[in-house]
Each structure stands twice: as structure tokens, then as C-alpha cells.
Design goal:
alpha+beta, 4 helices, globular, 7-stranded antiparallel sheet, single chain, 159 residues, two-stranded antiparallel sheet
Length: 159
């Protein structure tokens, strides 16, 4: 048998995480968006074959789009279609959420970063973060603080 997927209390299971996003950005707000997928993509996501590491979200013509997410097709994909692993996928958001994101991205200089891809009630959902970029010294300070917290916990445990 394969590994069991981790389930949280809401019945959601994680497909893919973008760990690099938390290192490169300050995440200030999070949103949940649906995805428009093809049949072979759903099968691949169920098999856990997705990567978000180089992906990003853009707003065009009042719609949100996911670029650069890689969904590897299964070898048993249909023979009459040509699967494109890194095709652009439309994100499903409420009009009010899109308007708020447009305001933040265009006026305030924020970036939209995909954070996690997961299942929720049988549907694939994408967690999007409204983020500001970190400078190199911010990244070093974060690493230093994390190391100090780890060292402090070790000292308190042994004391």
C-alpha cells in the first residue's frame, strides 16, 4: 500500500506545498480559490503529481490565472489528447475578492503567490497569499530568529 495522505479536521488533504514562498515573501493575507482543471489533471493531482515551486498568479482582464504550476500527466492519460503539464489554469474567485486583489497588486505593490494545493470536499483548491517581497537582510534575520528559537527551546529543555 502507498502512504496515507494527511487529513486535517476539515477533510482536506494536501497535494503540493510551496515552501519557498514563505522564505521569499512576507505573507500578509490568504485566500482560497478553485481551479478549472481537465480530467487528466484531476487524476494526476489525485496521484500527487503537482509542483508549485516556480508558479505565480496574475490578474488579467478581471480574472485570476495560475502560471507555471507543473502537473505531470500520468502515463495512462487518454490517447486522444496532448496533455500540457504547465498550461495556464484559471482560478475561480468571487468578483469582490478579485477587485480587492487588483487594488492591492496594482496600487500597493503586492504580489500573488500560490502557497498550497489541496483537496476540499472532493474539489481541488489553491491557497493564494497576498505577499510583499523580502530583501536579503530580511531573509537572514528570519533565519537567525528561527535558529535562536530552536536553540532557546533546546536550552530550556535541558535546563
Amino acid at each position: 500500500m502507498g502512504k496515507k495522505k494527511s487529513r486535517s479536521e476539515g477533510g482536506a488533504s494536501t497535494i503540493a506545498l510551496n515552501r519557498k514562498a514563505r522564505h521569499d515573501f512576507f505573507i500578509e493575507d490568504r485566500l482560497e480559490a478553485g481551479l478549472v482543471l481537465e480530467g487528466w489533471e484531476v487524476k494526476s493531482l489525485r496521484a500527487g503529481r503537482a509542483q508549485l515551486s516556480e508558479s505565480y498568479v496574475l490578474l488579467r482582464n478581471g480574472e485570476a490565472w495560475l502560471f507555471g504550476a507543473h502537473v505531470t500527466p500520468l502515463p495512462t492519460a487518454s490517447t486522444h489528447i496532448q496533455p500540457d503539464p504547465s498550461r495556464t489554469r484559471k482560478l475561480l474567485l468571487q468578483r469582490s475578492e478579485i477587485n480587492r486583489l487588483i487594488g492591492a497588486v496594482e496600487r500597493k505593490g503586492y504580489t500573488l503567490v500560490p502557497l498550497a494545493l489541496y483537496w476540499k470536499r472532493g474539489r481541488a483548491k489553491l491557497e493564494i497569499g497576498l505577499a510583499k517581497g523580502k530583501k536579503e537582510y530580511d531573509k537572514r534575520a528570519t533565519d537567525k530568529d528561527r535558529d535562536w528559537q530552536r536553540e532557546r527551546a533546546r536550552i530550556l529543555k535541558n535546563a
